[in-house]
Every structure is written in structure tokens, then in C-alpha cells.
Amino acid sequence: MEDDTKAEWLALGERLLAAGPDKFSEMLRGLRDVVEAQETIQRFDWQLLHRGRPRKRYEA
Amino acid sequence: MEKRREISAVKPNAAPKSDVDRVLKRLEMLGVSGEDALEGAGYSRPTWFRFKKYETSIGTVRAVEEWALKEEAKRKRPSTPTSTEQQALMAEWLALGEQLLASDPARFHSTLDGLRDVLESVKLQQRAFSKMFRATPDGDR
Predict the structure, then answer these.
(1) Which of A22, A41, B34, B61 is 20 to 30 A from B12, alpha carbon to alpha carbon?
(2) What are the domain boundaries of chain B?
(3) CA pair distance A60, B54, nearest whole angstrom
(4) Distance CA B111, CA A9 (A)
(5) CB proximity B12 to A under 8 Å
(6) Is the pTM of this model over 0.95?
(7) Which of A9, A15, A38 comes nearest B97 by C-beta?
(8) d(CA B111, CA A33)
């Protein structure tokens, strides 16, 4: 992550946490779900790739 | 023989024993001293001695009970994270951000945009509430 992006990401997180721990926890849970879903998609793609199927067909 | 008028020991606004007991029980559950509770409710600390001897008024009992209820509500509220917890939360926040950026940069940037909007709306909401619930609406003109 670039320094500017990292600084903004952290600043937004801190402001969100200051605005309300509940709101922040909710956002953190959502992020965990998104990251987990991305990992699942990538694993699925990797499995398809290794079966020799054309990857392009499964991309959005 | 001089007849003396019998003065009733019970004052008309004296608090019933059961009410005092209920408040005492509540304070015990909260783990606060009676002096602290009375001070919190706006009474002087020595009032406690009369309170515990059941020589108190309905108004005092009611005020202490209201204070105890507020204290109970405060304790039920989620506490603000300590600085160590805050650091741990921010570390997870950064790690998740980095993971998201690595796996899906477009989604990361749209999340960043969304976050800016969320914080802007929080600011607007706070400003709106302060306008609506200001004690003197024309006070700062």
C-alpha cells in the first residue's frame, strides 16, 4: 500500500472508531467478509485454472 | 396535669421503609457507597446517615433511585476501547485494507470512497443534531 493511501485508510479508520466503536466493529466485520469472499473467489479461479478450463469464461 | 399534644413521629413525606430498602439493594448491586449515590443525586454526603436510618423523604429516595438507574444504564453501554484495544483494532483494519487492495484494487478504492461518504454523513448528522437540540437557537448570532 502506498504511503498516502495507507495514511488516508488509517485516518478514516480512526475517525470511524472515534465516531462510534459499534459502527467501526460493523465495518470491520464487513471488511473481513469481503476479504474472505475475495479469497474464496481466487481459490475457485485457481482450481478452475488447474483443471485446464479457460479462465476467461468465468470472469465477470 | 398538662396535656401534651402527641406529635406524630412519621412525617407526611417520609419515605416508606420498603422504598428505602429497594434503593439500598439497588446501590448494593451497583457496588457504590451510599454517600457517593447521595452526592451524585445532588444531596450532601451526611444525608446518608439519615437515609440509612430510614429517616428520609420520598423525594430523596426517588432522586437516589433515578441516579442509580442512570448509573446502571451507563454500565450497560458498550465501553470505549482502551488504547491497547484501539491499537489492535487499527492493526486489523490496516491488515484487512492491505489484503483487499492486493486482491481487488477496484473494490478497495470504492470502499475508500464509501468510507469518505460515511464519515461525511456522520459529520452532517452531528451538525444537524446540534442545530436541532441547541439550548438557545439564536444564542450564537
Answers:
(1) B34
(2) 17-76, 83-132
(3) 76
(4) 10
(5) no
(6) no
(7) A9
(8) 13
